[in-house]
Amino acid sequence: MAGPALSIVNPATGSTVVRLAADGAREVAQRHAAARAAQPRWAATPIRKRIATIERFRDQIVAQGETLARTLTQEVGKPIRQSRNELKGLLARLDFFIAESARVLREQKVFADATQNLDERITHEPLGVIANISAWNYPYFVGSNVFIPALVAGNAVLYKPSEFATLTGRHIADLLHAAGVPDDVFVPVIGGAPAGAALMRQPLDGVFFTGSYATGATIAAIAGKRMIKVQLELGGKDPVYVCDDVDAKSAAAAVADGAFYNTGQSCCSVERIYVHEAIHDAFVDAFVAEVKSYRIGDPMDEATYIGPLARRAQLDVLRRQVADARRKGASLLCGGSAIKRKGNWFAPTVLADVDHSMLVMREESFGPIIGIQAVADDAAAIELMNDTEYGLTAGVYTHDAARARRILSRVHAGSVYWNCCDRVSPRLPWSGVKHSGIGLTLGTMGIQAFTRPKAWHLRSA
Ligand code: NAD
Predict the structure, then answer these.
(1) Residue 429 and residue 415: Cα distance in Å, rounded?
(2) To 10 degrees, the CA torsion angle through 144, 229, 204, 125?
(3) 54: CA distance to ligand 1 center in Å?
(4) Is 200 in the pocket of ligand 1 (CB under 6 A)?
(5) Is pLDDT at 447 greater than 70 in this prediction?
(6) Whose alpha carbon is nearest atom 15 of ligand 1?
(7) Cβ-Cβ contacts under 8 Å for 453 (sequence gap 6 or more)
């Protein structure tokens, strides 16, 4: 049975770009069967040939970069310069995987003893057929973190792009196929939640999910019963603490960018700010001036910094957070409501005098809104930074390296930042604690994540 039709809507205008047929349960089962049949041949292909396909994919990304950037902007509303940045960042990730994979996945001899005729080795076996269920906010980043190392390791990948980034997902599939990855080894599954649910009903060998905690919890429950590998990269409520020894103006500019880049729709967007009371007022003034300077408008315009929200439903989440905060005594310093134009627009919003009784400091906002809270000292800041269900990233701004280390070592988060924020490196593992997820991608560990180690005990006589 075919799935429901899928409308691709431009979030900047509200108009439908195209309507597509989503995959139904039968198509998803057929795609799984094809991938299952093709995977052993792919796994038997020498790794250098698998890596060569990724090198050709990289060439295609370079050659078609502008078209890809424009498609991304059209369907998720990401300002065009930020779409280009995402593609540039993708190249750096591809370079990392191309350079490191063969070494990291090589067979390891861990012990040899001639007197016992004993040899011990580890090989890294592909998991088999995996699902990659993905989010829309950085489709090239969150997708490639999974499908590139998974393919290089010899897995077949059933890739479900978000229904909000379907055209980008189809571009990715076309380019991988053109680069030499067989059609039934990298297999797109098109659709929304029903297609994802149909995918989860297949006898998979692993599931790698990026998205919200709510969906991640559903997926983990299904995977748990089947005893298959599950990795979840979920949401965050990422804090930054600004100490009293920094220049308020430059810290404000950097942290505002961390909060509002991609219109606040990054998993590692700054979502809560704590400022030492000694510089609180100067920081807030500089922060609001910075936010008011942001150019809001057509995401295809080169000068635009703030675009629309990808999902219309998120406007209500932001409205509710603003109303709740104001009712509980927060000061609204700018923004605070949807912008009246076609599409999904919300004015960049800064709330001060907030506290942890307010939704804006507790639930993921995933939009252009931020709360700023004054703190008396480092101990209070650490306590507040850890007072969350999430644990993706956390940052501190200070000139004092020892102070930063002291604070960051006590914060519960997968990534910690000193004098920076909203940053991902291909060389470092990307992971979350608590409701931000389990498992990891990126770094050399994020290459091995798509394999299972096989232990070889070899006695020659
Ligand atoms: P989402 O949970 O709504 O959707 C994610 C994916 O799951 C989509 O492809 C969707 O179609 C699919 N899906 C929905 N219901 C399903 C079901 N029942 N079974 C199977 N699949 C289903 O999340 P989203 O709106 O796409 O992404 C936003 C969230 O992702 C935010 O919370 C953000 O913080 C998080 N995120 C995290 C990271 C990270 O690295 N930790 C990166 C990007 C985004």
Answers:
(1) 8
(2) 80
(3) 25
(4) yes
(5) yes
(6) 193
(7) 122, 123, 124, 125
Residue 212 CA, ligand 1 centroid: distance in Å? 4
* pLDDT tier, 1 (very low <50, low <70, confident <90, very high otherwise): low
Measuring from atom 28 of ligand 1, which residue has the nearest CA? 211
Atom of ligand 1 nearest to the CA of 192: 11
194 lines ligand 1 (CB under 6 A): no
pLDDT band at residue 224, thresholds of 50, 70 and 90? very high
CA 304/CA 300 separation, integer angstroms? 8
For residue 162, give the ligand 1 atom closest to its CA. 9
Mean per-residue pLDDT, 207-212? 98
Please list the active-site residues: 233, 267
H helices of 356-420, where?
378-386, 401-409
Q: Does 137 contact ligand 1 (Cβ within 6 A)? A: yes
Ligand 1 pocket test, pick from 210, 261, 423 with the greatest ligand atom count within 8 Å of Cβ, gives 210
Could you tell me which of 161, 181, 156 has the C-alpha nearest to residue 60? 181
φ and ψ at residue 380, rounded to 5 degrees: -65, -40
The closest-lying atom of ligand 1 relative to the alpha carbon of residue 235 is: 34
Question: pLDDT tens digits, residue range 39-74?
Answer: 999 999 999 999 999 999 999 999 999 999 999 999
pLDDT for the residue 461 = 78
pLDDT at 368 over 60: yes
3-state helix, strand, coil split of the chain in percent (to 5) is 45, 25, 35
* 388 Cβ closer than 6 Å to some ligand 1 atom: no
pLDDT at 4: 77
What is the pTM for the complete model shown?
Answer: 0.97
What gap in Å lies between CA 4 and CA 6, rounded to an integer?
6
Task: Indicate whether 253 pLDDT > 60.
Answer: yes
99-114 confidence digits (pLDDT tens): 999 999 999 999 999 9
